[in-house]
Each structure stands twice: as C-alpha cells, then as structure tokens.
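User: Please predict the structure of the protein below. I'd like the answer in structure-token form so I can feed it into my own downstream comparison script.

Assistant: Understood. Taking the following sequence of 423 residues as input:
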Amino acid sequence: MIEVKHITKKYGNFKAVDDISFEIKDNEVVGFLGPNGAGKSTTMNMITGYVEPTSGKILVNGKDISKEPNKVKKQIGYMPENVPLYQELTVREFVNYMADLKYVKRKEKKEKVDKILEDTGLTNVQKKIIKNLSRGYKQRVSLAGALIGNPGVLILDEPTVGLDPKQITEIRELIKKLGKKHTVILSSHILSEVSQICEKVIIINKGKILAVDTPENLENKFNEENGIYLTVEDKNKKIEKTVESIKEVNKIKLIKENQDGTKQYLITANSNVDLRKELFNILPKNDINIVELKKTEITLEDAFLKLISNKEEEMEKKKKEEEEKLKKRQEELNNMSKEERKEAIKKEKKEAKEKEKEEFNKKWEEDKKERKEEKNRVKEIKKNEKNKKKETKENQKKLKKDNNKKEENKKEKKEKKQKGGKK
C-alpha cells in the first residue's frame, strides 16, 4: 500500500507539487494523468526516493521513505520513460546485472532470472544484444529490470511511448497481468490506454490533485445530459414537431445537415429516461426514416479536458475575485482618514496573524496525531516481525526435531535388520 500525505515539492518559489494526498491499495493498477509540467514525474520520482519532498511524507507498506529509504526502495521497481539500457549487453546479462544490483541471492538468481524472462516474453531473445532489438523488446527488457527482485510496487513512466500498435497491445496485456501480483502506477498521455488498463485514475494539474476516481465514475460524472444523436431522412419536415410530442423530451437541436440530405439532431431528455424505443416506434409512423441513432457518451479524454478546463476557470474566477476584493478594500482605505486607515491596517494584520497561528496549531495537532499513529504502526510492525521470527524459529526447531526422530527411526530399523541378518 502507498500513502502520500500532504506532499509539497518546491524549486525556489515555484511549487512543482502542492500539498497532494492520495492512497493506492495493494494490487491496484493506477493511472497517473496530467498535461506536461503538471507534476507527474516529480511525484513519481518522490515515491521512488529519487527526489526528496520539501514537506509531507510517503509511506510504502507502512515504511517512511525519508526514514527507511533502502527498505522502501527494495519494494519498488521503476521503469523510466527513456529506457536506459546497456546496449552492448545481451538481454540475459542485463537482467543478471539488475539482479546483482538488487541483491538477489546467488542460489536463487538463475531461477528468478529465468522466471522474469519468461513472464516478460524475452526467453527467445535472451542471448541477443540489446542494441539489435526492436523498441518493443527494449521496453520489455526495461520492464524485466524493474521486475527482478519481485518488488511489491511497479512504477512505469510512459511504458508504451514510441511503440507500434501490436507492441502497445502486447505491453498493455503484460501490465494487466502484472497488476494481479503487483501494485502498478502507470503514467501515460494516452487516455484510452489508461481507460483500458487502470482501475483508478489520479489526475494532476499545476501540482494539484484534481480527481481520484475510477475511469467509469469520471466519465459518468461529466456526462451531464441524457442525450441521443439522431440522424434522419425527413422529407416532410415533421421531425421537430414529432419529437416534441414526446413528453419526456426536453430539447431537440439541429447539429448538422449532411450532403446526402439527411440531418443530425441532438435530443435531450430527463436523466432517468431512455428514448430510443419510443423514437423507433413513433418516427416511422410519421414517414421519418432513422439512419443512425446513438446515445451521447463522454470519454475519459473528455472528462480529463473538462476537469482541467473547470479548474483553470475556477482559478481564474478566484483570481478575479481576489483582485476585486483588493481593489474594493483599497478604495475603502482611501476614503478613510489617516488614523482610521492606520487602525484598519493594524486590525487586518492582527487578524491575519491570529489566522496563521490557528492554522499552525491545527497543523501541529494533525502532525502530532500522525506521529503517534506512525509510532504505534511501527511498534505493531516490529511486534509482528518478532512473532514471525519466533514462529519461524519454533517451526525450524520442530522440523529439526522431526528430522532427528526420522533419522533415529531409520537407524533403529537398520540396526534391527542387521541383527536379523546375523541370526
């Protein structure tokens, strides 16, 4: 499980990531979406431990990456966007090298490398030099490097960029398969890809989280109207009057006139009504031929663009309100006498200071509570580890005892057999 709590990353005065929080459960495949410069890569780099946050904390399976970086990094496999590979090595040599970097035990290394090569479809090309492979196979090699060591969390940055349609399909299927055993965070600009692969989507823009939801819920949330696109052949021009006679219809609007003489309309109705059956029934009776009829649907891409647009509008509106408020206040101050103005500014400063103090105290209490929870969590983890070690020790002891007993029984049987032979 990954917990990101109030993470902020500043570069000078610029906030690349601004106080974001989210959770990712075990074996979830999560899409991380946002336009260029939104803060996706910065967030992913902070989760991997490559970049340190300015404030906030990141927990991977209960371990704080800033306090236990080595333990956390062992649980993470990272596949960067630009596929950094050693081009002169063979596929097997590269995966072996990555296994050594991740301290895979020597006794287990051959077995684990064989398994990863098989899982990523690289067994047949394991002896080939990496520079001679296609881009699709290079992506697989990079993924194999991330998978070796069996990390619980996989972070994949644009895993299908630059691939042909066949390779994209293969990588998508592989990611779906990996999601059954690993927690996967996937960064992508291809929204249809995220919609097909991911169970949950995190949308980020200008360093802030805009939405955390399933692709289906996001699409439904922005599907504001119950609409139908209807293309008809209407020689007698009766379509509008006929459709308006249906009581559930709210509006009929002409969208376009086609070259073949047909017309496309958008019909909207009450949210809980499906008009299709009614239209199929009533239109032919009025000599109106239906050429095409389909429900309006919003895609994840539409939802994404609307979210970005709505947030920008909201920020612009907020900015204008602040400017208006400031302008109004300035006019009020200009109409005051010198003493009144001085007193008003003093009062404002005092209120601002009290508000700041209140926010600080609130944050302090929240941090105090979090520290206590973390202390208890660490205590519980240590207790569980201790119990596990004790249990393992007892099992080993029992196994040893059982083996000794078996050896004794074996010895006794052997001795009895020898005595019987002498007689």
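That's the full token string. The first strand starts at residue 2 and ends at 11.
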